[in-house]
Design goal:
The complex is a heterodimer of chains A (528) and B (335). By secondary structure, chain A is an alpha+beta fold. Chain A is built from 16 helices and 20 strands. The termini of chain A are far apart. Chain B has a single domain, classed as MetI-like fold (Orthogonal Bundle), CATH 1.10.3720.10. In chain B, helix 6 crosses helix 9, helix 7 crosses helix 11 and helix 11 packs parallel to helix 12. The chains are: A alpha+beta (528), B mainly alpha (335). The interface between A and B is large, with 59 and 60 residues.
């Protein structure tokens, strides 16, 4: 009996050693190379008017086109389905002229009517992207002037209008209507199907496992990499940072997005691995509850802001971050470096504390961060250490994201301090400035419940102004005033990082993209 | 026999109802707003309301409960607010992967645990006993999450023997679905290449999942064997000159297996629960992973669905253990 056990064990060992490891991640198919992207976040619903998380939007950008597209660093709006456009003097009417050779994957031409239908669909569904335009654009305001001209009549002048259009993808009305169920605008069908005109079409779709897109050979706009065009991209779910790192090292992924700060430092030393490290637009701030509790006191807020060790924050990211010099990120239009942005100065911190209602400190403040976000927790520890000098205790509390958002929606339940990462959706300064408008109360980025009527008024004026100089002047004043009011500890801009194999070419960074989002269109594999 | 079956069925129904009520209450007490989460970070209040009303989340909680229970009676597990798909469809999609993983892990636990328990009893206080003791203590003490990552680092990255995560290579086409188990389906279709691949992918998660189970089986089996080996009938068998191998492997093992069987039944349920961790580490697309991602998104219906399914499978496993008990011990059949 014992010899048979030994035999079985030996057989198992032989079998396991016979399993061959792949030499590279990309998969060779008859049509060409398929790139493997390792990502943490699933894509439950692909419908471009319903969801736009980073992973979802990455695939949406692959299979759909929009009138315009963000490209480059700094991000700029480039013509795409629209080859040109003009605005009326009062800023109320926008007219777009479409390219004439664009076609959907089923061969239908992309017409002005398709654009009109897509915007109408987005607005009427009132989900996902609708918030970007719904206050300024009604479905009736969109007109297909002719086959290739579409006109938008806004309800009021709205300068950031163009900056949102890259996220309004155009669907083929014929395909959507053919798949409607009970007037659902094809929502059910578009969950895991597409009706787009983008460079890729959908391949295998295995929820929670992998999502494949295959390239469209005769894509109307052509391919920047020409003959090197990949056959497709597989977005493979790899949830754990450790597993992502292992997959990259073992050659099971060509590019991954979710390693820890320490992992990036370590894996940079591995031959043939390249780290993409770029200054992002995601701001990190410790937002105070400015309406209730001790942090309603501006002097206490200032004291905390001057007690914070900002360099330690950057050190937590192993240097892959830069301090905020304004509430607006550096890559944003209209950004200025605000003078007097607090940096650690204990003398000043004590002066402000003395002026506050808590001159001796002696209080405990809650610091809430998203459970599992290690860097946010460690920033909490830095805060805890720094505030000891002011005789202030910090109670660090991890919370699940939905619970944190729910608590922060109401002044009464908002914690004293909450760590918030916020990624602006566009490069227009309004995207960040509006976070400090009173209308943003209830949103996660409005968790400070900041209320300065003068700032809200300037924000309203700036989004309605059509002249950039007027807007720039207003945004400069807005930035200075927000810093003066200190609704948060202005933290840092975390770098965006990916780790990729060196043979993966065509990676382009644009700060306006979300967390791990990559433009799949220009990617290709360089083979020796 | 009929009344026994009916009683059993009633108990199952009662337990399932209890699980449904309890999980509904717990998930609804938990703070968080799934509609707001799904609507996206910038959604306005009326956009959140659109989603709330679409999923009936704007109704009073008691009304939601009544509707949910009514639907449940007709086999409707509700709709996932995150994926917008019916929960039942998703359970059917993900359950086979989990059942396959748990069964392979269970098989590993039994095939390795029982003989090792037997060996350590026979060679009590010898080197084999000491080694298996270390093994079993580690099995119970090692956190699955950490152990899984360690295994990946060693066997996948360091040695390159096995894949890091997933269920099949990316370009491999899964075999036609018959049972939902890739191992069985690939064998049925005669696709041995896919079978080999599927086997290579399941080895690491199955080992990690089976380790605590293996450890418990080993310890229980060892303890029982030691006791049985000292009993009179074994002494009598030895006196009759029956070979040691036959005494241990047949006479003693059968009697020592009863408590081990009970342990297997309990461990089955425990393993189903543990898939939550193991599937996350290995990106194994089963109900454990589905439960985690749903819970993190406050998506309640899938969480209740997974709990019900795990409860149901647990009850089935324990019923099978009861039957196996009767098969092994004829006295129980009369009782």
């Amino acid at each position: 009996m014992f010899s048979s056990i030994r035999n079985i064990a030996l057989a198992g060992l032989v079998a396991s050693t016979a399993l061959v490891a792949p030499a590279h991640a990309f998969e060779r198919t008859d049509e060409g190379n398929v790139i493997v992207f390792g990502g943490r976040q699933a894509i439950p619903v692909l419908d471009p008017h319903i969801r736009y998380d980073w992973s979802t939007r990455m695939i949406q950008q692959g299979v759909y086109d929009a009138l315009v597209k963000y490209e480059g660093d700094p991000a700029e709006v480039k013509p795409w389905l629209a080859e040109s456009w003009e605005t009326s003097e009062d800023g109320m009417t926008w007219t777009f002229h479409l390219v004439k050779n664009a076609k959907f994957h089923n061969g239908d031409p992309v017409t002005a009517e398709a654009v009109r239908y897509s915007f109408e669909r987005g607005l009427k569904l009132n989900k996902g992207v609708a918030w970007m335009l719904k206050d300024f654009l009604a479905p009736e305001g969109i007109t297909a002037v002719d086959d290739y001209t579409v006109k938008f009549d806004l309800k009021a002048p709205y300068a950031p209008f163009l900056s949102f259009l890259p996220w309004w993808f155009v669907v083929n009305p014929e395909q959507v209507k053919a798949n409607e169920v009970d007037g659902d605008y094809g929502q059910k069908w578009l969950t895991d199907h597409e009706a787009g005109s983008g460079p890729f079409t959908l391949g295998r779709w295995e929820p929670n496992v992998l999502y494949e897109v295959t390239s469209v050979e005769d894509y109307w706009k052509g391919w920047p990499q020409g003959e090197n065009r990949p056959a497709g991209v597989i977005y493979r779910m790899i949830r754990e940072p450790a597993a992502q790192k292992a997959a990259l090292q073992r050659g099971e992924a060509d590019i991954v997005e979710g390693l820890t700060s320490d992992d990036y430092v370590q894996i940079a030393k591995v031959p043939n691995i390249v780290i993409e490290d770029h200054k992002g637009m995601t701001t990190f701030g410790i937002k105070f509850n400015t309406q209730k509790g001790p942090t309603a006191d501006i002097n206490l807020r200032k004291a905390i802001a001057y007690a914070m060790d900002y360099d330690a924050m950057v050190a937590i990211y192993n240097g892959a971050a830069s301090l905020e010099t304004s509430p607006l990120p550096d890559a944003m239009k209209g950004h200025i470096e605000v003078e007097g942005m607090p940096r650690q100065d204990l003398e000043k911190a004590k002066e402000y504390l003395a002026k506050s209602d808590y001159p001796e400190g002696g209080l405990t403040l809650d610091y809430v961060h998203v459970a599992g976000l290690e860097e946010a927790r460690r920033i909490g520890l830095v805060l805890l250490d720094n505030l000891k000098a002011l005789n202030i205790e910090v109670n660090i509390r991890p919370e699940q994201w939905p619970n944190m958002v729910a608590a922060g929606a109401d002044v009464e339940t908002t914690p004293n301090m909450t760590s918030i990462y916020a990624t602006p959706i566009s490069t227009d300064p309004d995207a960040v400035a509006y976070q400090y408008h009173k209308n943003s109360w209830g949103q996660y980025y409005g968790i400070a419940h900041y209320d300065n009527p003068e700032v809200s008024k300037m924000i309203d004026e700036a989004r309605a102004a059509t002249d950039w100089d007027t807007r720039a002047n207003l945004y400069a004043r807005i930035q200075k005033q927000i810093v003066a009011d200190q609704p948060e500890v202005f933290g840092m801009l975390q770098n965006r990082r990916w780790a990729r194999q060196d043979y993966l070419q065509g990676f382009t960074f644009s700060p306006v993209r979300f967390t791990g989002e990559v433009d799949l269109y220009p990617l290709w594999i360089k083979e020796d | 026999m009929l009344s026994f079956t009916l009683r059993k069925l009633l108990t199952v129904a009662g337990t399932m109802l209890g699980i449904a009520v309890l999980t509904f209450v717990i998930t609804n007490i938990a703070p968080g707003d799934p509609a707001r989460l799904v609507a996206g970070p910038n959604a306005t209040e009326d956009m959140v309301e659109t989603i709330r009303s679409e999923y009936g989340l704007d109704r009073p909680i008691v009304e939601q409960f009544v509707i949910y229970m009514k639907d449940l009676m007709t086999g409707d597990f509700g709709t996932s607010i995150v994926s917008t798909r019916p929960v039942l469809d998703e359970l059917l999609r993900y359950a086979p992967a989990t059942i396959e993983l748990v069964l392979v892990a269970m098989l590993l636990g039994i095939v390795v645990g029982v003989p090792l328990g037997m060996l350590s009893a026979v060679y009590k206080d010898g080197p084999i006993d000491h080694v298996t003791r270390i093994l079993s203590i580690s099995g119970v003490a090692l956190p699955a999450f950490w152990f899984g990552i360690l295994m990946q680092l060693y066997f996948s990255v360091e040695l390159g023997w096995l894949p890091v995560s997933g269920r099949l290579p990316l370009v491999a086409r899964p075999p036609d679905m018959v049972t939902g188990s890739l191992l069985i389906d690939s064998l049925i279709s005669g696709n041995f290449k896919t079978f080999n691949s599927a086997l290579s992918y399941i080895i690491l998660p199955a080992i990690v999942l089976s380790f605590p189970c293996l450890a418990s089986i080993l310890r229980v089996n060892r303890a029982e064997m030691i006791e049985v080996l000292q009993s009179d009938y074994i002494v009598a068998a030895r006196a009759h000159g029956i070979s040691s191998r036959r005494i241990v492997a047949i006479y003693a093992l059968k009697n020592a297996l009863l408590p081990t069987l009970a342990m297997i039944g309990l461990r089955f349920g425990w393993m189903l629960g543990s898939t939550v961790l193991v599937e996350t580490v290995f990106d194994w697309p089963g109900i454990g992973l589905y439960a985690v991602s749903s819970a993190l998104a406050s998506d309640f219906k899938p969480v209740i669905g997974v709990t019900l399914l795990i409860g149901f499978l647990f009850i089935i496993a324990n019923t099978l253990v009861d039957l196996a008990y009767a098969w092994i011990d004829p006295r129980l059949r009369r009782a």
